[in-house]
Amino acid sequence: xxxxxxxxxxxxxxxxxxxxxxxxxxxxxxxxxxxxxxxxxxxxxxxxxxxxxxxxxxxxxxxxxxxxxxxxxxxxxxxxxxxxxxxxxxxxxxxxxxxxxxxxxxxxxxxxxxxxxxxxxxxxxxxxxxxxxxxxxxxxxxxxxxxxxxxxxxxxxxxxxxxxxxxxxxxxxxxxxxxxxxxxxxxxxxxxxxxxxxxxxxxxxxxxxxxxxxxxxxxxxxxxxxxxxxxxxxxxxxxxxxxxxxxxxxxxxxxxxxxxxxxxxxxxxxxxxxxxxxxxxxxxxxxxxxxxxxxxxxxxxxxxxxxxxxxxxxxxx
Length: 317
Known about the structure:
Structural class: alpha/beta
Oligomer: single chain
CATH superfamily: Aldolase class I
Number of strands: 10
CATH class: Alpha Beta
Strand order of the largest sheet: 7-6-5-4-3-2-8-9
Number of helices: 11
Low-confidence stretches: none
Radius of gyration: 19 Å
Distance between the termini: 23 Å
Largest sheet: 8 strands, mixed
């Protein structure tokens, strides 16, 4: 059960990046939550946070890479980083689409009261984690009281136009399975979410993205405690879908860590598997230097190619 060997069996001599359309920036691991499935192991006690110097270097390289269309800002709770708004404003001024990977509850924290209005003014696309439309499942995975706060945050976002029909303010939700299983079909689950959230809370949103839990960091520890690490890895490998390989996100994405190191995806970043030959933002003149470069793979990559596939934009099929 080896991902590289599996690729070879299907005629792939490894993976190679094609173009670079998305720059994903992980600004740190500080978060106001500590979710059980978090592959970043983010939480309130973490201290890793991108400095202003690193943020400005990222922006300089972005300016020199006009082919990048989207800047995807993540964490932790990315909004906690003091350079978050600078990254947003400069990226939007350059004409880029900006995505905020939001946990929703950050919108209710003291000091962040005007965050929804800032995001709306910059027309930031919000992609928010909500692993279920029921209180029990959300609180079990993300902590007591998180569901209620998430619903309140979604209602605040709806009130200023996010997720509303014909609005330019896009609001997407993210589903992660609560246990050691693959996500259900994305289209059907989206319909269920829209029905339940609309009928119960009057909430509207654009799309639901289903994302497979990766067997790394905090979720890996959870699997080990349950004695399911081996069976879950086998589940992912047994459901390898060759049709997803052409569409995996790493082929058009570069990931930058809080300290300026370069990776092929956010998952490789958490496993500290750097991009081949280009270790940091200080050693390149533009992100284009990573185009057409080989992509580092390992067995966790089965998570992106199992079933309908999984990426930061949801299912691949």
